[in-house]
Write a structure and sequence with these properties.
Adaptor protein complexes are heterotetramers composed of two large adaptins (beta-type subunit and alpha-type or delta-type or epsilon-type or gamma-type subunit), a medium adaptin (mu-type subunit) and a small adaptin (sigma-type subunit). By secondary structure, the protein is mainly alpha-helical. It is globular.
Length: 845
């Protein structure tokens, strides 16, 4: 029987059909290597294009390296460029191959064509192979003395590349003095700029170890050098002008006359078409006039027009960068920009990040004269179909209201938002109304009349629900249905996921009880009973606090929980004035865009993944890792490139399947009956209805249960678990990942960690090594302060069950969230007790 005919597909012209095509390329290149026949260069071009195309899409074509080098013997500048591109790509990772390129690159550095000399020198310096630095010294020295400015320009940057490869070789060859001489005498402005850039970086790095380098760095800020650059300013390119202006901003003039001379010389740079040049010039003006108050204010007036022009022209990215700097200036001098508020109105076609920043600008420039117009514009945005934009607009209106400008009209507008019956609008408005009532209690009657018509069932967002509950408790005497609304919310306690809402609900019920006791008695009893068995530590503690306060003395409880309120005059600022000043010092940098000062967050950390700390999560895959220790107590941990989404869940995710009294939490509180507090006032027990029979929970060992010494049963000493673990258990990282993905969560708990243990986490290996001593192995770890995430593995001694643990530690609150998955569900609780026992000993030894 004849075999079936094979179908043939024509290969794509841009992709090889297999290794055979790369071999064909190699053969064709070898045949053309020594050929000088007419049309050879055209054929080479086609082959070179194919090689570069394959290299670009990630196909390994390093096997044709020697053939590409042999074919580089040509005067065709296009072939040279493609060859240099190919060589630069593979030489960094293949030092042995890079050695093959030295001869032809050195030969090209002596070519008659200055373009080829420059390209060859650039490629030679870009090989990045430390073993070949001795081959760079000669070509660089010749390049700095070359008659063509392009070659000198490349050589100036090449010296910096050589310094990063081998600083000693660069300094021994006396390249910095040559660069300085070239910088001060060369006629080509771009060569001067490249020399300045290289010298600044070299001398800055050497200044910490060399006094001579520190002195040389200071000479760059001397008056003759600065004036030399200023007089040649118009010759420089835009990039070079930014470098020079950054240098000038660090220069300290001798007197005010010199300041005005420099500012007059740079006046025309404010009208430059390039935004970077304008911002660099503004930085010079601002820094030089800091000590001259009147002149500094005039500078603000002078730079306003160029900045507003840049905002309205150019790309959205440029607009955002300029707006970030403008926002910084507005925060320092809002009155200067208050008349230009219309420039900050949002356009329909702007991206959201630009609109959001403009809203911040509008809130900053609002004053008595323009508040009405600004709020009217913001109210138009509230009806926007873009929900994030609508939310930000409501917040902007609220911020303006808290600045005490035309409060009457703004409060009316906010109350109208509540009548729009849009869930996101209602949620944001409730949060703002809460803040307004804290600052303007006199508006409570009007606000409560509208808020009272809102059904709590229509408010789902935690912050909004918490705000509504706060108003129900704070103004219980003015809201007729307040006790009954709170009672309904308490009945749905188990369905409420947000701890913030539960905390507010506890407080609101107590406040309502202190004012309308008969109507709130049942709700208070239910709330306290639910609170003392809540798995969240803060809710648990607050419920006990309120219970004991009421039990001790109701009048004392009222003075503590519901004291006379004073209007809030100023809300806390998100940034300190010191932080704003530090950011202002770093004007025209990423610090302004990210709103983070460099002394807290060095600029390279914005972009460099190598500087994100020992627990840094990779943004792409979540690189969870703990390095293996060589000691006997080493942690059996492996680097995991995790692609399992379950392993990478954020630390703020909701607990799956939580139950307040049955989840095995170490914070489950003991229930109460009349016999445990026989000596207490019977009236108080009836008051809060805590003496009802309830399910008995295991007692806990935390001192919080005897917070006020009210005779709670003392916690017995912990009983050692009978569960024994296999000290030699191990699992492959991939197997752990697959097992974690397949198994359901057996137990989800929250516990605490000793503060001394938190301090011990400064050493990333400390906790894994500690748990290893208890036969619990760390598989992976990640995160950074204040939240760290660990994955642990343990196995029952007889091998019948494996235990997988996700442990999230909050170092700021000393709280630990645990998720345990087990082959044997029945032993999950026993393992949890063993795990928590081991964890509680961390740092206490």
């Amino acid at each position: 029987m004849a075999p079936p005919a094979q179908s043939h597909r024509s290969p794509s012209p841009s992709q090889p059909s297999g290794k055979g095509e790369v071999s064909d390329l190699k053969t064709q290149l070898r045949q053309l290597a020594g050929s000088r026949a007419p049309g050879t260069d055209d054929t080479k071009r086609d082959l070179f294009k194919k090689v570069i195309s394959y290299m670009t899409i990630g196909i390994d074509v390093s096997s044709v390296f020697s053939e590409m080098v042999m074919c580089s013997a040509t005067s065709d500048i296009v072939l040279k460029k493609m060859c240099y591109l190919y060589v630069g790509n593979y030489a960094k990772h293949n030092p042995d191959l890079a050695l093959l390129t030295i001869n032809f690159l050195q030969r090209d550095c002596k070519d008659e064509d200055p373009m080829i000399r420059g390209l060859a020198l650039r490629s030679l310096c870009s090989l990045g192979v430390a073993n070949l630095v001795e081959y760079l010294v000669g070509p660089l020295g010749n390049g700095l003395k070359d008659g063509n400015s392009y070659v000198r320009m490349v050589a100036a940057v090449g010296v910096l590349k050589l310094y990063h490869l081998s600083a000693s070789t660069c300094l021994d060859a006396d390249f910095p003095p040559l660069l300085k001489q070239l910088m001060l005498k060369d006629k080509d402005a771009q060569v001067v700029a490249n020399c300045l850039t290289s010298l600044q970086e070299i001398w800055s790095l050497e200044a910490s170890t060399s006094e001579e380098a520190a002195r040389e760095r200071e000479t760059l800020l001397s008056k003759p050098v600065v004036y030399y650059f200023l007089n040649r300013m118009k010759e420089f390119s835009e990039w070079a002008q930014c470098i020079v202006l950054e240098l000038v901003s660090k220069y300290v003039p001798m007197d005010t006359e010199e300041i005005f001379d420099i500012m007059n010389l740079l006046e025309d740079r404010l009208h430059h078409a390039n935004g970077a040049v304008v911002l660099a010039t503004i930085k010079v003006f601002l820094h030089m006039t800091l000590s001259m108050t009147d002149v500094h204010q005039q500078v603000y007036e002078r730079i306003k027009a160029p900045l507003l022009t840049l905002v309205s022209s150019g790309s959205p990215e440029q607009s955002y960068a300029v707006l970030s700097h403008l926002h910084l200036l507005v925060m320092r001098a809002p009155y200067i920009f208050s008349s230009d508020y219309k420039h900050f109105y949002c356009q329909y076609n702007e991206p959201f990040y630009v609109k959001k920043l403009k809203l911040e600008m509008l809130t900053a420039v609002a004053n008595e004269s323009n508040t009405y117009e600004i709020v009217t514009e913001l109210c138009e945005y509230v009806a926007n179909v873009d929900i994030p934009m609508a939310r930000e607009s409501i917040r902007a209106v609220g911020k303006i209201a808290l600045q005490q400008y035309d409060v009457n009209a703004i409060v009316d507008r906010l109350l109208q938002f509540l009548e729009m019956e849009k869930e996101h609008v209602t949620a944001e408005t409730l949060v703002l109304v809460k803040d307004l009532l804290r600052k303007y209690p006199q508006w409570s009657h009007d606000c409560i009349a509208v808020v009272g018509n809102i059904s709590s069932k229509n408010v789902q967002e935690p912050k909004a629900k918490a705000a509504l509950i706060w108003m129900l408790g704070e103004y219980a005497q003015d809201m007729q249905d307040s006790p009954y609304i709170l009672e309904g919310l308490v009945e749905n306690w188990d369905e409420e996921d947000s701890a913030e809402v539960r905390l507010h609900l506890l407080t609101a019920v107590v406040k309502c009880f202190l004012r309308r006791a008969p109507e709130t008695q049942k709700a208070l009893g239910d709330a306290l009973a639910a609170g003392v068995t809540d798995f969240h530590q803060d809710v648990h503690d607050r419920a006990f606090l309120y219970y004991r306060l009421l039990k001790y003395d109701v009048s004392v409880a009222e003075r503590i929980v519901n004291p006379p309120k004073q209007a809030v005059s100023v809300f806390a600022d998100t940034q300190s004035s010191e932080m704003k000043d530090r950011i202002f010092d770093e004007f025209n940098s990423l610090s302004v865009v990210y709103q983070k000062a460099q002394f807290l967050q060095p600029s390279y950390m914005f972009t460099d993944k190598e500087h994100r700390g020992p627990f840094a999560f990779s943004e792409e895959l979540g690189n969870l890792s703990i390095g293996t220790e060589p000691s006997d107590a080493a942690v059996a941990a492996q680097r995991v490139e995790a692609n399992d989404k379950d392993l990478l869940l954020g630390t703020s995710e909701k607990e799956e399947g939580h139950g307040y009294g049955s989840n095995g939490s170490a914070y489950s509180a003991p229930s109460y009956n009349a016999s445990t507090t026989a000596g207490a006032s019977q009236a108080h027990f009836d008051l809060v209805s805590i003496d009802q029979p309830s399910t008995v929970h295991p007692p806990v060992s935390f001192a919080i249960d005897d917070l006020l010494g009210l005779g709670m049963p003392s916690a017995p000493s912990s009983v050692p678990s009978t569960l024994q673990l296999n000290a030699k258990a191990s699992i492959d990282a991939n197997a752990f990942q697959q097992k974690w993905r397949q198994q359901p969560i057996s137990l989800s708990q929250e516990t605490s960690i000793d503060p001394r243990g938190v301090a011990g986490m400064m050493n990333p290996q400390a906790l894994p090594q500690h748990m290893q001593g208890h036969s619990i192995n760390c598989i992976a770890s990640g995160g950074q302060a204040p939240k760290f995430k660990f994955f642990f593995f343990a196995q029952k001694e007889d091998g019948s069950s494996a235990y997988l643990v996700e442990c999230i530690i909050n170092s700021s609150s000393c709280k630990v969230q645990l998720k345990i998955k087990a082959d044997e569900q029945a032993t999950s609780q026993a393992f949890s007790e063993l795990f928590q026992s081991a964890l509680s000993k961390f740092g206490s030894a």
